[in-house]
Structures
1.
Amino acid sequence: MLQTKNSHLVLTVGNNHRLYQSYLGARLTNTADIEKLSAGREVYLTAGMENQFEPAIRIVHADGNPSLELEYVSHKSEQKGDVSYTNIILKDPAYPVEVTLQYKVYFNEDVITCNSIIQHHEKKPVRLTQYASGMLHFSADNYWLTQFHGDWAREVNLVEEKLTNGIKSLESKLGARANFYQTPAFFLSLNNPATETSGELIAGTLGWTGNFQFTFEIDQRNQLRVRSGINPFASDYTLQPNEVFTTPEFIFTYSNQGKGQASRNLHRWARNYAVLDGKSPRLTLLNNWEATAFNFNEAKLIELFDGAKQLGVDMFLLDDGWFGNAFPRDSDKAGLGDWQENKTKLPNGIGKLVQEATNRGIKFGIWLEPEMVNPKSELYQKHPDWILRLPNRTENLARSQLILDLANPQVQDFVYSIVDDMLTKNPGVAYIKWDCNRSMTNAYSAYLKEKQSHLYIEYTRSLYKVLERLRAKYPHLPIMLCSGGGGRTDYGALKYFTEFWPSDNTDGLERVFIQWGYSYFFPANTMAAHITSMGKGQSLKFRTDVAMAGRMGYDIRVNEFTPQEMQFSQEAIKTYKRISDVIWFGDLYRLISPYDEPRAVTMYVNENKSKAILFNYNLNIRRKDIFIKVQLQGLDAQKKYRFKEINLFPGTKVTHPDNDKVFTGEYLMNIGLNLNPGKVTSLTSNVYEITEE
Ligand code: DGJ
C-alpha cells in the first residue's frame, strides 16, 4: 500500500502470485475498506502469455521463447525523511528473469514515482522490445486526455480530448531534443474533464531526456491502461546476462481537486526534490542573443555590460558566436565543436570579459552547445568518427549541424572537457546556457557498431553520465537547459539544471500561452522568461509583466531604451527582486485561462498566505467581451489583505477603484475583484501585490 497525504495506490498479490493494482485514488481512511478491495488489474503486464493488450514489458528469451510471467517474490519498504521507498521483486517461474518495481512516495507533495529494473541470468542475452517505467489502470465512464504539442517557437499547446477505444499514443522519436513536438507530460481526467479546481485526474510526466511514449489504451470493457516509459521505437535492447536495465521514473500525482492542485503538487515536488537547487534564488540577467546575434566583439560586449549594470540585473550572459578560429562562428553555419575564443572578436579571451563584468559588479555567464558539431569545424576534420551519421548516405544537416556520438566514451570526455575547461580556465564564469539545436535524423553510431538499436537509449544515458561528472565537480553552478526553444523540458534533465528555456518565442502574447502550458508541470523558478524586442506593438510594460511570472531576464538593446523605459526597467528589476520569492516558491493558482477568455489571470501565494502576487493580462479584447469578477484563491479567509497595483510605467496612474484598499481573504475569494480593463484594451497588464495587513 503506497500512501500520500491525499491518495492511495494499493497493490495486492493474487492467489496466482501475480501483482495487481487494486486501487488508485483518493486516500482511504478506513483500513477495513482497503481490505475489501479486489485484486484488480495486473500492475506490470507482460507479453506472450494470456494478455492481449499492450504489455508493460516484452522479452524474447535466449531460446527464442517470447513469453514472460512475473510473480511476486518479496518487497521492502524504507522511509527516509518524508520519502518512502518501496521495491517489489517479481520473478518469472520458468526463466531466470527478475523485475524490480521501484516506487518513491513523496507523502507531503502527493507525488509518486515508479520505474522498473530488469535483469536476467540466462546463459545468453535476451531481447527487450518493451520496457515501460510503469503502467496504471483506471476504470471510469469516460477518460479525458490533456496533452501539449508544438514546434519551434510555438511550444506546449494544450489540447483536451475524450479518449475512445483503441490506443492513443503521445510520443517522441527525436532522440536529442526529444520533447520538441510533444511535451512529455499529460493530464488524464476521469469521467468528466477536470477544471482548475474540480475533478479527478492524474498528472503524469517522464523523467527522461530522450524518446518517450505514453500510451492510453481502452479495452473492450472500457478499462483504461496507461503505459509510460522510454519509446521502444527502433530500440530493441539486447540485455546481457546480469546486466541491469533501469528504466526512467514515471512521475505522477493524483488530485480530486482539479488540475490546479495537481500542478501545485508537482511544483512542490520539483522544488523540494527534482530540480537542481529548486529552493535557491535565481539570477536575473541580460543576454545578448536577440540584441547582437553573432555580430559582436569585445568592445561591444563590454558596452553591453554597462547596460546590464545600469539595469541592475545580476549577470550578463554571452550567447552563441564567441568561438572558432579556423572556422569562425559568425553564423550558425560554422564553428560548432571548436570551443576556443575567436581571436578577432575576443583577442583577450573570456578571462577579460569575466574581469570586466566583475569590475562592474555583475556576474558573467556563457553559452555552450557541447553535443554538436558543424561540418565546417576543426573537430569535424579531426574526428569524423565521433559524429552520428549513416556511413553510406549523405549527411542530413539541421541548422547546418550534426550531433556528436555521445555513446562513445571519448566523446563523453570531450563534452565534459568543454564545460570543465571553460570553468577551470575561467573560474569566474557563474552560469552556463547549455543549448542543443537539433534532433536526430539519419542517426548511426560508429561506436555502437551492430548495436544500433541501443543508440537512442545510450545517447540519453551518456548525456546523464557527462552531467553526473560535471555535477560532481560543480554541484551548484546554475545551468540553463536550452534546446533551440523548449526542446528539452523534463525532470530527467532538470536534476542537473536549475532552469530551462521554454521557447525562442519571447513575444509577450505568445509567452502568456507558452508559460501557461509549462506551468501545469513546472514551477516558475525553472522557466527562463526574457524581455526582448519581439512582439510588435506590445508595450515594454506588458512584456515585463509576462516575464515576471518566470525567472525574469532581458535580451534587448538596452541602449535603445527611452529614459522612461530605462527607469521603468530599473524599478521593475527592484520590484521583481522584492517579490520573486513568492513567484518562485509560492503556490500557483491559475484563475482565468487564456484558452477560455481573451485574458489570463494567475496568482502566486506564499507558504504562510501572507503575500500574493496577481498577474492580469488582457489579450485580444473585444468590445463584446464581458468580464465577471475574478475570485482569488489560496488566501486565508480570515486574514486581511491590502490590494495594491505595482510595476507601473512612469507617468501612469492606478485606475483600479479597489487599489490600496483592505479586504478579507474571504471577500477576495468569495466575492472577488473586478479586473475588467475598462475601455477595450488589448495587450495591457497589471501586477498586483496582495499583502497581509
Ligand atoms: C537557440 C536558443 O534557444 C537561443 O536562445 C540562442 O541561444 C540560439 N540557439 C543560439 O544559437
Note: Residues 290 and 483 are 16 Å apart (CA to CA).
2.
Amino acid sequence: MTMHPGERKKVFVKTYGCQMNVYDSGRMQDALENDGYQNTEVLEEADLVLLNTCHIREKAAEKVYSEIGRLKKLKEQRSATNRPMTIGVTGCVAQAEGSEILKRAPAVDLVAGPQTYHNLAGIVRRAELGERVVETEFEIEEKFRQLATATPKQTRSRGVAAFLTVQEGCDKFCTFCVVPYTRGAEVSRPVSQIMDEARKMVAAGVREITLLGQNVNAWHGLGADGREWRLGELLRELATVDGLERLRYTTSHPVDMDRGLIEAHRELDCLMPYLHLPVQAGSDRILKAMNRHHTIDDYRHVIGMVREVRPDIAISGDFIVGFPGESDEDFEATLDLVREIGYASAFSFKYSTRPGTPGADMENQVPEPVKGERLQRLQALLNEQQEAFNRDCIGQEMVILLEKPGRKQDQLIGRSPYLQSVIVDSSLGVPGDMVHVRITGAAPNSLSAKPV
Ligand code: 5AD
Ligand code: SF4
C-alpha cells in the first residue's frame, strides 16, 4: 500500500457503547475531515483507526482489547509498506485506563479521553510523528465549544433523526457506575450553542432531534429571558425552531423529573410520548445501596404524573440484576415493579463489578449463575411487555418519520412516536417525510403499516 501525492489519509472509527459515543464519533469524524482526513468504512484501507470505547460493563471494556489484537496484525502487515497505520483508543476505556492501555497493548499509539476531542487533530499529529500520546484531561467546556464546527455537508450526513449533546457527565455517583469517573462532573452546554447546533441540523434536513446527556434532565442554563432554565424550558425554546418536527431526550434520572419537564409533555406536540427513565431495581433496600437518591414510591409518583399529562406515553427503563446484597425477595420486587409499571421497551443487565466504584468493594456479591437466572426471568417479562405494547398498536393511526431504506429493496423504515421501527412500502415517500399511517402488523422489534 502506498500513499499517492494529493491523496487524503483515511480514518476508520469504530463505536462502542452509548448514544453519547455515537454522537462523539460523528463529531470526531467531522473534526478530522476538516483537518484533511477522509472517512472510510473499510478498515483495511485506514491510515488511522480510532476505537471509541465503552467502560460501562466489564464485557464492553474487554471487547476493546480483542479488537486491538486483530488490529495489531493488520498494523504489522502494513509496517512493511510506506503507509503505516496509527491506532487510537478514545472514549471511556481511554479515560479509565489511560497509560495502562499503552502498557497492555503496545500496538496502540494514542489514548484520548472523552473530554479531549477538541484537541484530537493535534493528538493524532503527535502520534503520527512517533510520540505515544495519552490525553485524559477534563476540558469539557472547550469540547462543547468545538463541537459545532461541522460543515453543512457533514451535518446532512447525520440523517433525518440525529443526536445533540446538551449535557455531559454525572454528579450522582450511583455505586455501580463508572460514568462519574469516565465522563467527569455534570456540565451543561449553554443555550446559545444548543440552539445554534439545532438550527444548523434542521437547515441540513434533520427533522427529529434527541437531546443527549448522561443526566439529560439535570441540564440547566441561563435562558434568553435572563432566568435559569431547566430542561423543560430548553425543550420549549427548541420547539420554536421552524422545521423541527420532533424532540426527544435521554437519559433521565427520576430525581430530576421536575414539574416543568413533565408539563412540557402536556404542552408540546413535538415532544414525543416516550420516556426512558431507568429505575435499576425494584426494592428500596437495593436502591439505597445503589445510592439512587429515591424510593420506589418516588418513581411510581413520577411515572404517575407523566402518565397524567400524557396518558399514551411509552415508558422505557434500565435494570440491573444481582447488585451486591440483592436477595430473592428484592429481585421479586423488581419483577413486581415491572408488572405494575408496564414497559414499552427496556434494557437489563447483570451487575458487572467496576474497579474503583463503591459497589466493587461491597460484600454479598451475587454469584454469576444467580445473576444469569434472574436476568433471564426479567428479560422474559420485559420482552413479553414489549410485544404486548407493539401488538396494542395494531389498528392505531400514527404519524411516522421516514428514516432510511429497509432491508428489502421496496421498503423504508420509519420511526413511530413511541420509538418503534415501522416498516412501510418505499412508495410512501422519502427519508425526512412525515407520513400518516395505520399500523397493520406487529413483531417483537418492529411494526408494519399502510398509508391512510
Ligand atoms: N453493571 C451492570 N449494568 C450497569 N449499568 C451501569 N453500570 C452498570 C454496571 N456496573 C447499566 C445501568 C445504566 C445503563 C446505561 O447501564 O442500567 O442505566
Ligand atoms: Fe459507556 Fe457510559 Fe462511557 Fe457511554 S458514558 S460509553 S455508557 S461508560
Note: Residues 278 and 318 are 4 Å apart (CA to CA).
